[in-house]
């Protein structure tokens, strides 16, 4: 039995080491860097980080970028309520430059807190999800953090990511994903949870989890088929294929594709234009009032009483349109 246990332990260790090497290889492809025990070298990404806040340009809508050399966990997600003609638009800006906006425990905690506040804020009319880091939307899970997790931690954490992504999908106002760069794995799943997706032609999108011997875990297996069809979704997931903006537009994954501008925010500017179009339409307060008025009309009907009686008697209802 001791020999069998040693063999099993050795096999598990080999499997874990293999998984770690897969993660390290994928991190290297993304430029993230991951030092493993026994590694000869350990590549580390530069510490460049966007400066605190954005400086508004004329009109308050287009924003100027700056840099900071410090990594501040409190600034990994920036929530901005736009003003003047953009009042009612909220921008969620992901800001983890040192990790290509990879999804970490802290980022999920901040997203969850922001979404909880937004879903009950009646002044919010449209939400834009974007990156404040040039050339990237979200590179997916933070694999450097993930590889350090015990296997018992992974499942609950992925469930938390899935829950937050679902909360975004269930927000009561229109949501727009502005994809100005890399959107891989969980990053694309985050975008898929939004009602509308726009991207720069140079953006790269894909559910690449099968390269790491796993599958999409934050709704990608469900939302991608609903967006582009079952057969093509399977093809993209099985192959871990990465598409550019033009290819994504051709299959219906995104609604609009734009040539990138020198500021690197073409998708965000288009998202802002769309959000402005949405503002004059029915807002949440008015919509709920309409719902209440319509529901009130059903209360005195015979069909409503018949439905309740049928439920009580466990039989099909016999509606008459009365």
TrEMBL record:
It comes from Trichechus manatus latirostris. One of its GO terms (cellular component) is mitochondrion. This is Methylglutaconyl-CoA hydratase, mitochondrial isoform X2. It is found in: Mitochondrion. One of its GO terms (molecular function) is RNA binding. The lineage of its organism: Eukaryota, Metazoa, Chordata, Craniata, Vertebrata. Transmembrane segments: none annotated. InterPro entries: ClpP/crotonase-like_dom_sf (IPR029045), Enoyl-CoA_hyd/isom_CS (IPR018376), Enoyl-CoA_hydra/iso (IPR001753), Enoyl-CoA_hydra_C (IPR014748). PANTHER family: ENOYL-COA HYDRATASE-RELATED, METHYLGLUTACONYL-COA HYDRATASE, MITOCHONDRIAL. Keywords: Acetylation, Lyase, Mitochondrion, Transit peptide. One of its GO terms (biological process) is fatty acid beta-oxidation. Gene3D superfamilies: 2-enoyl-CoA Hydratase, Chain A, domain 1, Lyase 2-enoyl-coa Hydratase, Chain A, domain 2. It comes from the Eukaryota. Its main location: mitochondrion. It holds the Pfam family ECH_1. Belongs to the enoyl-CoA hydratase/isomerase family.
